[in-house]
Amino acid sequence: MNPTAVKLPESVHLKQIIIDIENRRQDLQSQDVCTTLSKIQPKFIESSFCNEIGHLMYLELEVKKIRESSYNPTWEYSEISEILRMPSKLADANKYRKPSEWPLDMDTLASNFFEISSAEKFLKEDEKGPIKRHWLVIDFILSLEMAKILPIYQNLNENDKVILFKKVGLINAILMQCFYSLENNSNTILFPDGVMPLKMLFTVYKQFGVTHASKLYIDTFCRSIETLHRIGIDSNEYVLLKAIIFCYPAVQNLSEEAQKLLRKQQEIYALILLRHLQARLGDIAGAKQYSDVITLIGTFFYFAECHKQTHIIPPVEMKQANPLCLENLQRLYMNSTPRILEKILL
């Protein structure tokens, strides 16, 4: 039918009616398209998880920048709560520079490790002892500096934060050490200043005629890296895994409200990880990689316990040392132990 051929009263504006009908038709078509798209498109839009990954990657970049600099909070804190009350140091990442003497000469460090005379001189000059930079403490603090910026932590009270960080801070610190060691093609933990703790350990063992490290030290400093290498974890998976661990809700003495908030946020990060992997690898391969990455949570809980034991339980081989050597070793260790280390390990 031709609308223009219809005779209507003069008071009716035919052209306006035609325009209104056309506009209505277009509106209905647009609604049909939106309804159809909402049915066929997944609710989880790619741009949303890309933004979240981008935010985590930015924070990690700042962590890496400050970790590879002169920043050294080893002796600044004695309580975890002190760290939480301070603004995040990541905002100052550009204020620090990489020390010119890095990487340190491991052979020189190892050869001087047992020179008691130089150690005694050092102790007289500085009661903190010869190990001025304690990387486990530094990486623990840097993990907290990153976590403090995550929105979820703004909703937790200080007591819940301390309880949670005491559990997950060490795990993410060790995960960070392993990931960046792997990134530098090292099969053992390697710190930014070039120090390899396992090589220092071999130096200690050599004094007792021992030529190999125990399973505890191999697990702690080598197999933790092998695990990441076997899975082939990349930087996106790494930052999401850290975020998932940061939101670990099954920590004893956490309030019910904190557990609920953390569980919800952890599920969001886990979903982002799954969707990211499926978008990159396909549904089946992505789901498999997701399972492998999530399994790392339990694995690094184990490696965290290994790290604790290396600090708390003296190696069996140490008992072979002569009393004078052992006494000096114990004295050097006590003088080089940061105050906050006990809070991290216990």
From TrEMBL:
It comes from the Eukaryota. PROSITE patterns: NR_LBD. The keyword Transcription regulation applies. It holds the Pfam family Hormone_recep. Residues 105-333 form the NR LBD domain. InterPro entries: NHR-like_dom_sf (IPR035500), Nucl_hrmn_rcpt_lig-bd (IPR000536). The keyword DNA damage does not apply. Keywords: Receptor, Transcription, Transcription regulation. Belongs to the nuclear hormone receptor family. This is NR LBD domain-containing protein. It comes from Acrobeloides nanus.
